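hiii so my PI (J.) wants the whole complex modelled not just the main chain, which honestly fair. so below is everything: two entries, each one labled with what it is. i double checked the lines twice but i was tired so who knows lol
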Amino acid sequence: MTTLSPANSPSWFREPSILPGFGITLGLALAYLGMIVLVPLAVLFFHSAGLGWAGFWDLVTEERTLGALRLSFATAFIAAAINGVMGVLLAWVLVRYRFPGRRLIDAAIDLPFALPTAVAGIALTTLYAPNGWIGRLLEPLGLKVAYTPLGIVVALVFIGLPFVVRTVQPVLEELDRELEEAAATLGASRWQTIGRVILPTVLPALLTGFALALARGVGEYGSVIFIAGNIPYVSEIAPLLIVIRLEEFDYQGATAVAVAMLLISFALLLFINLLQAWNRRRHGHG
Amino acid sequence: MAEATLVILEKAAVRQAASATGERRGVRVLLIATAIVFLALLLFLPLAVVFAEALRHGWGEFLAALGEPDALAAVRLTLLVAAIAVPLNTLFGVAVAWAVAKFEFRGKSLLVSLIDLPFSVSPVISGLIYVILFGTHSVIGQWFAGRGIEIVFAVPGIVLATIFVTVPFVARELIPLMQEQGTKEEEAALSLGASGWQTFRHVTLPNIRWGLLYGVLLCNARAMGEFGAVSVVSGHIRGLTNTVPLHVEILYNEYNFVAAFAVACLLALLAFLTLGLKSLLEWRHGAELAASRRL
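here's the output for the full assembly
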């Protein structure tokens, strides 16, 4: 027993428990996750390392690649911002008001999660095309949606809609009405209560929802390619450029765009997490 | 006179209190109307378009598009892929949730965030990694090709890419649920002499069944509807490596809009079914689903 090394002792790695099956379930899970997710992703990074730093940089700073990356992140950011505003509004309406059809609308919010993206893509395109039900009304106003970057934003708003609503909704449900009453008793106007009491409470959830919608929007492919028009330098998103490079059998080009996308996405998510932590510290809780 | 003033003041105070924690009627109506118009433009009209376009030339053409051999082959492939990917991810979800929720160990939070990794990777990249790993230019790909096994641009690649994008669904449903339930009931069963398997089968499984079903439902919807990842690894061979969403794309790009939307109707119906069952689960068994469910 004295030869028991720390690595063999269960207390070093985990707290003792009488429940069985830790080793087998964790082992299975790690093996599965490793084979399906981690090793293939690592191979992607390894493959791009084969390009060397200069080679990678040349591929990524190519004008077409830069244009596609800029477009993907810009449209995803705008769409996530729109979803930030409309998501809070929808969550507020669903939590605070009672009106006919509320349950149906509540269930419909999840439609973008359930509807395959290709279907959303062709439906939105048909709807917003110049001869579509909505496109026809916008055309005289000089507004073109389908086959322009604006169309990409519309598709990404669709895709990201549930994220903000579903993160903000539970926070609003648990919001203590007495806080609002207290604010009102102390002489705050309704707008002051909303700005100083409700919004700060909702903000962390809103940021989380925004980050999820942004991450999803940056990588989205299925719903966008139909409505985008896919003109290089103008309406060609980064995921599409990866597909085009692959079809040209340019594996290095495809890998470079993919790695650049992943690195920027992870940096953004890290930044938003740090912002969350800073916000928690500032308000002195959590 | 003084009394009348008092009554007016009182009424004003009551009105004030009501508006202090709520909005005026006009504001309320405006907000509800904005929400409904927004959702109509974004969700309801696109759905209506799918069915309107599919039935543009009547039921005959609609049914013909669905009965076409390539469409049927796509349906069969989609069912096959889901039948492999969903059970595997369910097994993984249950195993990882057991380890994470019932035990305390180092690196747990890292493991939990790794499970969600596929959600922050573009579907196109999810496909690309398997092309890089198993493509004919890679060492592994050549090894398999030498034995007559095709992975990329064939069914195994489609299955792998689908598994990748649906890995988190069951796990993220079960982990918070099992954490909320703790380990007391399992410990009681074990101390009464139940075996580990009996404990899981008769104690844990009944406790998590609705959450499990919820996760499987969402996992299945994504597995059957996945487009980007599958598109990259499929090779788009009609009747062979075409899933239903890919078939929709091919028909649409051939300007065969009625057929494209007819097949899209199948996927829209799948979405309705998923949302319906999901709402039913939340309504009937909401208390037995994870309260702190993450997205």
